[in-house]
């Protein structure tokens, strides 16, 4: 761990920033198998929030591996570090009074719990943490495998891809997600609406104009 470092307080407190932006900062953490529909839901959710003039930004699993995490592979240790970094970045977005939307398989419960704990721990100078909304996009592995838009399950079955979640590596489903989307015969609109309704019910979103 780095030493001889000092936390520098921002010019505005989080409350002042949220008042200025007229919204709360938080993270929406979508988790589920590959081909469960996480990215599709995240894209539409981001679009809907932006349409309501709500500051939101989507952090997508593949996109992040093109840059921030391009040095990581898919071993358990690398997956753990992948999620650790994303948790830190998502918290920065949330702390800026934006809504971070993450779309990652994030197969291990302990890693998702760590991301939640990171958000719930107050930033220095703040008296409270940040909301963390876990969204489980739930499909049976056989359904995800039938969809397989990238051909990844096929490659995993052939042994081309090692340590593939749902085939040769485990997926630990969330026990108590804030939102549980059973995304088998559900329309995209209904899936996104489940998340928006939850956010509205908690007062996380400003009222519609």
From TrEMBL:
Biological process terms in GO annotation: cysteine biosynthetic process; hydrogen sulfide biosynthetic process; sulfate assimilation
Pathway: Sulfur metabolism; hydrogen sulfide biosynthesis; sulfite from sulfate: step 2/3
Membership in a protein family: Belongs to the APS kinase family.
Job of this protein: Catalyzes the synthesis of activated sulfate.
Record InterPro entries: APS, APS_kinase_dom, P-loop_NTPase
Listed CDD domains: APSK
Protein name, per record: Adenylyl-sulfate kinase
Catalysed conversion reaction: adenosine 5'-phosphosulfate + ATP = 3'-phosphoadenylyl sulfate + ADP + H(+)
Keyword line: Amino-acid biosynthesis, ATP-binding, Cysteine biosynthesis, Kinase, Nucleotide-binding, Transferase
Iron as UniProt keyword: no
EC numbers, comma separated: 2.7.1.25
Gene3D superfamilies registered for this protein in UniProt: P-loop containing nucleotide triphosphate hydrolases
Segment forming the signal sequence: none
Enzyme kind, highest EC tier: transferase
Domain APS kinase: 24-182
GO molecular function: adenylylsulfate kinase activity; ATP binding
């Amino acid at each position: 761990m780095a030493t001889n470092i000092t936390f520098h307080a921002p010019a505005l407190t989080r409350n002042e920033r949220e008042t200025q932006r007229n919204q709360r900062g938080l993270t929406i953490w979508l988790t589920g198998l590959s081909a469960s529909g996480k990215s599709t839901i995240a894209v539409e959710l981001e679009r809907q929030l932006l349409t309501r003039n709500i500051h939101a930004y989507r952090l997508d699993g593949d996109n992040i591996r093109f840059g921030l995490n391009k040095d990581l592979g898919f071993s358990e240790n690398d997956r753990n570090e992948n999620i650790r970094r994303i948790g830190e970045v998502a918290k920065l977005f949330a702390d800026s009074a934006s809504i971070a939307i993450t779309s990652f398989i994030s197969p291990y419960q302990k890693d998702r719990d760590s991301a939640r704990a990171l958000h719930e721990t107050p930033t220095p100078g703040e008296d409270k943490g940040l909301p963390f909304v876990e969204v489980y996009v739930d499909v049976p592995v056989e359904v995800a495998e039938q969809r397989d838009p990238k051909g990844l399950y096929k490659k995993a079955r052939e042994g081309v891809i090692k340590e593939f979640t749902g085939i040769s590596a485990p997926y630990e489903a969330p026990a108590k997600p804030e939102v549980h989307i059973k995304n088998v015969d559900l329309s995209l609109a209904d899936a996104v609406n489940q998340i928006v309704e939850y956010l509205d019910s908690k007062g996380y979103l400003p009222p519609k104009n």
